[in-house]
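FORM 7B - TANDEM STRUCTURE REPORT

SECTION 1: FIRST PROTEIN
SEQUENCE AND TOKENS:
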Amino acid sequence: SLSIGNSGAAFIGNNTASSSTAAASLGAATAAAAAAGAGARVVNNVAAQTLSVSGSLGTANVAVGVNNTAKAIADGVNGVTSTTGVTATAKTTATLSAPSAVGTYTFTLFGSNATGVSISAGVTAVNDLSGVATAINDKTASTGITAALSADKLSITLENKQGYDISLTDVLNTTTATNTLTLTGGATATVLGALVGTDSATVGGTLSFSSDQSYTLGTSAGTTLLTGASVGSTLASVASASVTSVVGATAALATVDGALARINSARADLGAIQSRFESTIRNLGVTTENLSAARSRIRDADFAAETAALTRGQILQQAGIAIVAQANALPQSVLSLLQ
């Protein structure tokens, strides 16, 4: 059978799904006890599991190791895109906020770097974290982490666009050791300070899955990666796209990309169908030509053969007449001799 999907604005776009940011999941903050090890990086919440991806092209399994970063998992998913038709991007976002008091805060920062980078920044007012944001951005080249200060200066959004974990270790206010900062990842906020039970934390990344057609994700273990054992994609259609905000415009770009991919796929399907029609038409044309030739041979006279047959008949007729004439003349000749 021949068919193509509906290409209306409400039926094409970007089919999306995301990893979990609930407590104890990849995207949630996880903390370690104070003095657990100077400079020790806390691991994320991911458990070892098999991630199954069932897309429009087929199904493939991706092995997820314990404490894998979002980047590593996305790389695994993208490694089987040719089999599934599903791609994945990774990004890590965390929020640093709520200094309990002024003073100089120090900590070790990890992003894409394997060796921690020391950060030291002064907080002159509990409602102004600009000094901390500046200190983190000064090390972006080493960590891959950017810090965006909120308009009210009360919080900082940390981001690693590659999907590496964001880790703060050995958080300390050198002015007063009991002072703290709060690191939030997903649904979990962790208060960090040398004397409050936790001084280190890690926030894992978030995975965003995309395809121009629907798909299903599954996991073999728990909810540290997905919100359930099986998660289906949701269509962000062209008809529902909005560019009234930066977030909406960014999502609209992905939606348009998905719609274009779907249209290109439909064009390829139509091209294949057209090729099949053209091949069938050519075959029918050859059959018609052969039938016409056979019909002509049956119904039309062969002029050369008929002319030869006519000539032969005329020769035989003339020969017969001549023989009859000679036969009639013979008795007359005999009588004339007798007379």
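SECTION 2: SECOND PROTEIN
SEQUENCE AND TOKENS:
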Amino acid sequence: MKRNQAMIELLPNGDLAIGPSSPRGLMIHGYGGNKEELLGLGVQLALELGVGLLLFDLPGHAPDRDDLLTMATATAAVRVRLEAEAAPAFVVGHSLGARLGLLAGVPVLAAISPPGPALFDGNRRALIETLRSRRVRERTPYSGLQEIITATVSPAAEMWLCYASNDLKSVKDLAQNWQEHATIERISGTSHLDIVSHSATRARLTTWLADRLKSAR
């Protein structure tokens, strides 16, 4: 793949593949989002690092499916793609996607604004305003989200965690608590949602992943 080209392929199952097939990483979007929200970040990683990325829609999110978002369906969706990739080089997850990467126990994880259980302290209005609720299919409103968010997780063996200057309290708390277990970076001028598309996030993530991939070779 040339440096100025990043081929994007729509796979038969609806997933998106960017760049070469090896080495390849997995990207997991956040609650109420979709795979296309990570496309810009994925293309930059492919161009800068010469890696491939696989992007997919979590259960309950694709408009042309009728599946529900639950702990079981979400973790299964991640597991199927991890197995298909035969141990991907890394995983990049935003918000809920970062929590799912932690639940999967992947060894190399870039976690962008991973929230904690405290997200559900407070009223429903605050929750909706924070999470940009969309038409996520769940058994009851937010049931799948809460099930995943409140599950116990541990830091990945190699982990980069970034959080927004105007992020959720639970994200900031997690970053504070995991300082000894991960490379922590604060992205100024961002919020929980727009951090994933900020140029500083892309630049710092690219640098961190470049070091990880170099040491793995």
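SECTION 3: OBSERVATIONS ON SECOND PROTEIN
Strands lie at 8-10, 16-18, 24-28, 52-56, 91-94, 108-112, 158-166, 183-191.
The chain has a mean pLDDT of 89.

SECTION 4: SIGNATURE
Preparer initials: ____
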